[in-house]
Amino acid sequence: MVRRITFVALCSLALLGVVVGRALQHPAYAAAGGFSVSYTGTNYYQPTDYFNHCGYWTWLTNCYTDSSSGPSAQSQVGQDAQFIAANGLGTFQRVWISLDQLMNWDSTNGYQSYNPAYLANVDDMLHRMARSGIKVDLVLLTHSQGAGTANQFHPEAVDGYHPTMRANYLRAVHDFLTHVASDPTDASTIAVVDLQNEAYYQLEVYFNNPSNLGAFTQCLSGSGGTDWGCVDNTIIHPWLNDLYSTAKSAAPNLLYTVSDAGGMLNANSLQQQQRENLYPVDVYDIHAYSDSPSSDPTRWASGKLLNKPWFVGEAGCGVGDTSCTYDGTKAAPIDKWWLDNLRADGASAVLVEEGGTAFTFPDGPYSPVLTATGQEIKQITLDHLSSGSQLPTSTPTPVQPIGTPTAGAPTSTPAPTSTPVPFITPIALATPEPINMPVPVVQPTTVSGPTPISPWSPVGNGGMRGPVIMPVPALSGPFQATFDNQAQGPLALGSVSGYFSGVVNGSQIAVTSSDALSAPNSMAVAVNGGGSAFAYHQALGSANSYSLRFGLRLGSDFNLAASEYLVLAQTLWHSGATSSVGKVNLVLTSNGGLYLSYIDSLGVQQYVWSNAVLDRSWHTIEIRETTGVGAGSLTLLVDGAQVAATSSANTGGQPIGYFALGEEYSPADSGTSGHLYFDNVTATL
């Protein structure tokens, strides 16, 4: 749920899909058996805004460090974290980010980039949590109907009429997770990431209005209302699948969830299995609200049958009973029941809704005290610590398949919400489709300025899964250039094998013996942010299947400015092509990462992410492509190991007859400079 927002009541039941057995496993699902967090905790929406005066979903913006009207949110975070840890409120806290507050937003296309200062605020917050020994469940996207869309998820992004906005949300998730994964403290503080809070419920509320269905008119029911089963199958589940795949590509070592509003705890085992099929996640986050939880023990005990680890991300009084859930005295006996009983039902943690229910500030911003609910949380924490069981050591047994309100301030809080139980027919989750988005701007690890990253992170370090170094087999082809038969100096051009057809800004390109993959020579390219300097080859023929392989080394003087990127290689059907359909780019990011982008037959840019991170040694890069509309494929290999791939893709129908290597393009930035070295270029064009 989300505070201070009035929800629209749902007026119909979901269609049930016929499901047999448990969900098919996504190939990227993590083995989350090691999910280990403190059993107790709360929801931390933001530091108490009664004192810092930060508006809703603004606490990580410029307001974070603003102390002009009271203590800053930054100072409150540190104080709150220390108080939470010292007073037994649990070292697992559900911290709400709402990525939209960090974004530079375009009203038509959505996310463009992050504000570097706001990302730095996130880093600072996570570091402060870490200093108090707190792990977090980081909530990235949130939306509540009736609250407008200021700094929260725009649901129209998934209505079929806004493909660029949808794609840019995926890019935003990728960029953010890449950023936090590159900071060791951030990454170690994040126990799990909630990609979207109560996604099914919140989006069902939005699409319950038929006028919001956008391009998905097939989801109109016969009576003119909304067919929820269609919405779940056609809109929400594909969105969550893309969200999960994007997250795993960006930061594969983190665990991911999409919180469920309660339907997954269900005494009907078939319905529970159907519910499991809704969620491409590593860990289940299930919300529990009831004024009388002890009257329904069979429902809560169904948690022992879930096929993945689970925790309660929100626990409170009955649905809609905000006068109880957010009252630290009234909620105490119900919160105590949840804490006393759900561990036996398999819950790894129970997080009370919300922090303000557990502690208040009766005498100003520096006077936190525990409420009755807070005292119950503390007692449970102490009991578990004394028994040695605060950190769970086991996970639920999988079932085998069958055939904050502010202290002293008036607040308006929403009703905790439970989701009507929608079910879908299980979908076989295959390799994620490439993501449609404009050229990404990868945020730097440090955001104080355009400081270039130097030296580059070694392959496989920093929590990134780098390529495995393997022997590279020989590849023959019509084009082979080692540069060893050329004199040092300007690159020689020609129309025979081994010679490039032409250059752009040839004064920045030279044959050199100063560095080579195979002695004596290589091609050196002097890069210049905002410019282009590359060699290209136009084949006499073209092919629908090809491979481009080359050695690459980032020079010791090479710097790619923070938050910038550089196109290292490009393929196209012809150098004089007036259409970019079928164009493939190999892009280097400011943290040394690689990914592919391509233009499909509709002229939309798509993406294939990788987890490769280059250091400054020589690496052999290979791009393999088969062109086709719906039948194309792209594969990226580094040192013989596949690091990215997509199939059944729309790579366009044009054959490939052209490629370019060097600095094909980079944004204007004086921080981008130095040399790239290329050697042993082979193309089967």
Q: How would you describe this structure to a colleague?
A:
By secondary structure, the chain is an alpha+beta fold. It folds into two domains: 32-386, Glycosidases (TIM Barrel), CATH 3.20.20.80; 478-683, Jelly Rolls. 20% of the residues lie in helices and 25% in strands. The protein has 13 helices and 29 strands. Strands 14, 15, 17, 18, 20, 25, 26, 27 and 29 form a nine-stranded antiparallel beta sheet that branches. The longest helix has 23 residues, at 228-250.
What is the element layout, followed by pairings?
Elements (H helix, E strand, L loop, with lengths): L39 E5 L4 H4 L20 H14 L5 E5 L6 E4 L3 E5 L1 H16 L3 E7 L21 H19 L2 H6 E7 L2 H9 L20 H23 L5 E2 L11 H8 L7 E6 L7 H5 L8 E7 L5 H4 L6 H10 L5 E6 L2 H4 E2 L8 E2 L1 H15 L48 E2 L42 E3 L7 E2 L11 E3 L4 E4 L9 E5 L6 E11 L1 E10 L10 E8 L11 E6 L3 E7 L5 E9 L5 E8 L5 E7 L2 E9 L6 E10 L9 E9 L2
Parallel strand pairs: 1-2, 1-10, 2-5, 5-6, 6-7, 8-9, 9-10
Antiparallel strand pairs: 3-4, 11-12, 13-24, 14-29, 15-17, 16-19, 17-18, 18-29, 19-28, 20-25, 20-29, 21-22, 21-28, 22-23, 23-24, 25-26, 26-27
Indicate the structural class.
Answer: alpha+beta
Our Rg estimate from Cα atoms comes to 27 Å
Mean residue pLDDT: 80
Number of domains: 2
Low-confidence stretches: 3-33, 390-476
Which bin fits the share of residues in helices?
10-25%
The CATH topology of the largest domain is given as TIM Barrel
Short description:
By secondary structure, this protein is α+β, with helices and mostly antiparallel strands.
